[in-house]
């Protein structure tokens, strides 16, 4: 159990009277765990609940064995969870360099991510370092959001729909980057609707429906099986 | 010649008032940008700063007068005044600390805003109880009160000091916001509070820092403003209204906006009083209405 990075047990979250998460549970022990599901099934809510951004009504979230249920978001982050939110949520008033400087020198433990490391991973960010982040393209904003999360030196990276709104020509290099990151040992919880991204990056896929995990499939299995895709997600991979 | 005299004097008065308003409004706009709460006790903190500064500077001056008169004379009343300003900063900071502790337990921006209004009324009443209803001013130190000739016209040195102080405050705030780590975090927090928390920054502590900073600055502006503008019960809501005018014109949450807004309001107020005294209030509110009609977010505000 000691190598369990993230554990979610019987989690319940309500938005007003809407019961969004209905006893969802999962265990993440490294690698890339993918969460697939249609819109409105509670994937983003799960990410936000783990981060402490929405109140949890029942259940437990543990990071590295420590219960963090309903802790303030900064505690969750300091516990080693990096967050790349849906929509990226970069800070438009800050330049690229300021995003990274804002977090440099804050890290505890020698996790090792530095501004230079981020620039090395995303050379484009270095070219655009003095640009106000509000003027970045969607792909660049995504790189910045990932770089920002990495600078918190996470043990686990939660990425919520990194491919959202990006053109396929930008998604492909992003897939490469995420694989490189995963191969270097970074554990990732990848929330996706883009089947191609999810099957290309994840080691294991969990299917979310109506606030629960309904099944678990191997990416290879889902990739080649249009009927299964349709059954689980109501969509099929194009091309 | 009297025409020229009046013009220069009116211009200088407008600039001085604008300078003071900038200091007042910058704390206001900083807190709003981050917390999304209009601090309606802002004027009350100004007034409390003025009263505390008054009492502290008088007390210190009197004590010095009796114990070390030579020192008191050498400093020309400066010691008492400087300590008065510092005491005003502490008072403003403490009220802000109290306000932040209270506001933390209240959910919803409307409820939080109402809480600040309640605090404003409470502070106003406490001030009336302690200091009574007569208009007061702090005694400016001799060293900065000597008249200075501006374009051939003698102008009170203290008012020039107010302008210098505002410029210095503006520079310090600029450096803080745009050149320091705290500033980067504050600006990020203005953009998106959730994300600042999600990268491991204790947002409550950030709010507290900014609140105390804003409160201290407002307290100081009370003591500095109260040295040349008489203050009394009611000044709190006058200052709040005028600070609102400034940030509506300049744009809430923008430092540059509060600078420009403060100058606009200061000059309109000064020229309005001097040349169109019947229209002075109308000119000011008319400007606010025009800005709201054509540029809701203010001159330098961001559209949401």
Keywords:
heterodimer, A: 239 residues, alpha/beta, six-stranded mixed sheet, four-stranded antiparallel sheet, 10 helices, 35% helix, 26% strand, B: 304 residues, mainly alpha, ABC transporter involved in vitamin B12 uptake, BtuC, two-stranded antiparallel ribbon, 12 helices, 2 strands, 76% helix, globular
Task: Give an overview of the whole structure.
The complex is a heterodimer of chains A (239) and B (304). Chain A is an alpha/beta fold. Chain A is built from ten helices and ten strands. In chain A, the strands form two sheets. In chain A, strands 6-7-8-3-9-10 form a six-stranded mixed sheet, sandwiched between helices. A four-stranded antiparallel sheet of chain A has the order 2-1-4-5, covered by helices on one side. The longest helix of chain A has 16 residues, at 168-183. The mean pLDDT of chain A is 90. Chain B has one domain: ABC transporter involved in vitamin B12 uptake, BtuC. Helix content of chain B is 76%, strand content 2%. Chain B has twelve helices and two strands. Chain B has helices at residues 2-35, 42-67, 69-74, 78-104, 109-131, 157-179, 181-191, 193-198, 203-225, 235-250, 255-275, 280-294, and strands at residues 148-150, 153-155. A two-stranded antiparallel sheet of chain B has the order 1-2. The longest helix of chain B has 34 residues, at 2-35. The mean pLDDT of chain B is 92.
How is the topology of this model organized?
The complex is a heterodimer of chains A (239) and B (304).
Chain A: E1 6-15, E2 18-28, E3 32-36, H1 43-51, E4 58-63, E5 66-67, H2 73-78, E6 81-84, H3 96-103, H4 115-121, H5 123-127, H6 138-150, E7 156-160, H7 168-183, E8 187-192, H8 195-201, E9 204-209, E10 212-217, H9 219-223, H10 226-233
Parallel strand pairs in A: 3-8, 3-9, 6-7, 7-8
Antiparallel strand pairs in A: 1-2, 1-4, 4-5, 9-10
Chain B: H1 2-35, H2 42-67, H3 69-74, H4 78-104, H5 109-131, E1 148-150, E2 153-155, H6 157-179, H7 181-191, H8 193-198, H9 203-225, H10 235-250, H11 255-275, H12 280-294
Helix pairs in contact in B: 1-6, 1-9, 1-10, 1-11, 2-4, 2-5, 2-9, 2-10, 4-9, 6-7, 10-11, 11-12
């Amino acid at each position: 159990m000691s190598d369990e990075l993230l554990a979610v047990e019987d989690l319940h979250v309500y938005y007003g009277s809407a019961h969004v998460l209905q006893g969802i549970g999962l265990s993440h022990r490294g690698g890339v765990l993918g969460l697939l599901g249609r819109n409105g099934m509670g994937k983003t809510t799960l990410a936000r609940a783990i981060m402490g951004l929405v109140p949890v009504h029942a259940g437990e979230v543990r990071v590295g064995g420590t219960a963090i249920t309903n802790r303030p978001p900064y505690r969750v982050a300091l516990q080693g969870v990096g967050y790349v939110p849906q929509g990226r949520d970069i800070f438009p008033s800050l330049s690229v360099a300021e995003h990274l400087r804002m977090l440099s020198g804050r890290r505890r433990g020698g996790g090792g991510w530095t501004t230079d490391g981020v620039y090395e991973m995303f050379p484009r960010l270095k070219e655009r370092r003095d640009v106000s982040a509000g003027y970045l393209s969607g792909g660049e904003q995504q790189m910045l959001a990932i770089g920002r999360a990495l600078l918190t030196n996470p043990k686990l990276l939660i990425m919520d729909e990194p491919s959202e709104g990006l053109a396929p020509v930008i998604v492909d290099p992003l897939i490469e980057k995420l694989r490189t990151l995963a191969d270097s040992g970074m554990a990732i919880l990848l929330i996706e609707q883009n089947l191609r991204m999810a099957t290309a990056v994840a080691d294991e896929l969990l299917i979310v429906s109506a606030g629960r995990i309904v099944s678990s499939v191997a990416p290879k299995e889902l990739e080649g099986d249009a009927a299964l895709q349709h059954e689980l997600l109501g969509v099929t991979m194009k091309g | 010649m009297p025409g020229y005299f009046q013009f220069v004097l009116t211009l200088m008065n407008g600039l001085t008032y604008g300078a003071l308003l900038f200091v007042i409004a910058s704390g206001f706009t900083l807190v709003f940008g981050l917390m999304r709460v209009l601090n309606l006790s802002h004027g009350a903190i100004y007034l409390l700063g003025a009263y505390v500064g008054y009492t502290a500077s008088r007390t210190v001056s009197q004590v010095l007068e009796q114990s070390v008169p030579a020192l008191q004379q050498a400093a020309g009343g400066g010691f008492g005044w400087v300590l008065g300003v510092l005491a005003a900063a502490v008072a403003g900071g403490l009220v802000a600390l109290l306000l932040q502790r209270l506001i933390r337990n209240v959910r919803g921006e409307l409820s939080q805003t109402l809480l600040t209004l309640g605090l404003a009324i409470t502070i106003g009443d406490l001030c009336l109880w302690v200091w009574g209803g007569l208009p007061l001013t702090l005694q400016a130190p001799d060293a900065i009160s000597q008249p200075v000739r501006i374009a051939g016209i003698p102008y009170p040195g203290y008012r020039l000091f107010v302008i210098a102080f505002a410029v210095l405050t503006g520079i310090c705030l600029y450096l803080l916001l745009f050149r320091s780590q705290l500033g980067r975090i504050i600006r990020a927090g203005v953009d998106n509070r959730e994300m600042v928390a999600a990268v491991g920054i204790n947002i409550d502590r950030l709010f507290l820092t900014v609140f105390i900073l804003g409160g201290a600055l407002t307290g100081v502006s009370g003591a500095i403003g109260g040295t040349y503008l008489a203050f009394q019960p009611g000044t709190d809501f006058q200052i709040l209204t005028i600070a609102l005018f400034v940030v509506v014109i300049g744009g809430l949450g923008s430092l540059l906006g509060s600078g420009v807004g403060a100058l606009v309001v200061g000059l309109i107020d000064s020229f309005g009083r001097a040349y169109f005294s019947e229209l002075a209030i109308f000119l000011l509110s008319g400007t606010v209405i025009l800005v709201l009609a054509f540029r809701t977010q203010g001159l330098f505000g961001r559209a949401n």
